[in-house]
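Comment thread on ticket #2218

A.B. wrote:
> Attaching the input chain for the structure job we discussed in standup.
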Amino acid sequence: VQLVESGGGLAQAGGSLRLSCSASGFTFDAYGIGWFRQAPGKEREAVSCISTSDGVTYYADSVKGRFTISSDNAKNTVYLEMNDLSPGDTAVYYCTAHQSWPAIVAGWGDYWGEGILVTVSS
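C.D. wrote:
> Ran it. Output below, let me know if you need it in another format.
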């Protein structure tokens, strides 16, 4: 099982980045996929999740209207489009997967990627 994040890096405030989570080794469309983030000195928090079977989504209040999650089941990949970025979005972003929707939203992923750093400068 492997989850690999890509697309992170440095952005200016107000800018955009798109993260990708490429999955392998499990039945992709039977899992919920989530994005979580952890900023220095802070606890890990949920950002957004998607049910790859029916497209149901979840967004944290802090990113609603700015971030969009989507899934390409043919490519076993979930994307997180991040717009209007602010320095408060600076964190390591992790991709995670779980078969249970409540579990994935709660952060109890079965599988986790290694994380990718997003830095937003003011």
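A.B. wrote:
> Thanks. Noting for the ticket: The first helix runs from residue 101 to 106.
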